[in-house]
């Protein structure tokens, strides 16, 4: 089941693809070079004038809402949203015509502490404009294409630029609201040299790492750890198995924790490769689950003998920490699907089917345990009353 689930998850998770093609021509201007951006079906075309260090460019983007916005900008210092000098296009609340306003994205934008207000940029914009594909009669709708034109004056020998772009659902007055926070929306940054057209060295395997991270953690924290807990709860009462249940339980849990540690390490690496991209709740749940898993593993080294008076306290600790780790792991798996923008994907469906199967098995075993418990209680009562003998084959089967 785990093998089939892992294959299903592997082929269901998205791969990084470029679904848009760049063009150097617009109805009003022709540019020398163009490049396809890795997210949101966006692209940029430009002409760099070396003699006076000016850059003519056009950004091609699309709206995701009739009342939304599309923005492009340059971060002078680093490839991230914070510090970006942005030009944002959206329909004017008064006239409905497309407008283009400048915005400086300071750290408060991330947390929406105050409305984003238009103000002059730190970079030299000689001219700028925005137009909808289709001309003046075009209207903003979901999927409408927009072109943002700009002419910039660059500093001497400063041709490598950090381009940042995004789009949102709403504009309150003249204040764009926060954009969606899927993985693609949070990674809309690209650095390239406008003179040569070469992109900066980027970790092109981020998409693959993200998929591997999701698959490993779904299998380890989301499936294997619950299976190990089920084995400990329902198989340890079968005397015919002897201590076998314990070795199976410990082996599965140790392997799951080792595999989960690999997935956790990949998640930490993904954070390092994605500056400015933060998943607060997912990250906190991941750290909490890993810490509880580590405590469970260390608890094996301090496991008292069955005759030790502290054995009962160790068992209580082991149960509470173990179940807590399982719950956090499963919850964080669902949080991970949302973070990756896979909330309605086949990968999540496959995981839900696997988890539902395990829950169904647990319910069946729990019902069976109560039936056996009630039967043994009744037999014990009859035995005390002398109505049956000291042994019974029916009870021996379940003992």
Quick summary of this structure?
This protein has eight helices and twelve strands. By secondary structure, the protein is an alpha+beta fold.
Please explain how this structure is put together.
The protein has 399 residues and is of the alpha+beta class. Helix content is 42%, strand content 20%. It contains eight helices and twelve strands. A hairpin with a 6-residue loop joins strand 5 (84-91) and strand 6 (98-105).
Extract low-pLDDT stretches: 7-19, 391-399
Q: Strand tally, please?
A: 12
Instruction: Tell me the number of helical segments per DSSP (H or I, 4 or more residues long).
Output: 8
- For the residues shown, what is the average pLDDT? 82
* Secondary-structure element pattern, one letter each: HEEEEEEHEEEEEEHHHHHH
Give the overall silhouette.
elongated
User: What percentage of the residues does DSSP assign to strands (E)?
Assistant: 15-25%
Helix/strand/pairing category:
alpha+beta
Main sheet record? 5 strands, antiparallel
Q: Compute the gyration radius: what is it?
A: 30 Å
Strand order of the largest sheet: 1-2-3-8-7
Measured between the Cα atoms of the first and last residue, the distance is 29 Å
Q: Percent helix among the residues?
A: 40-55%
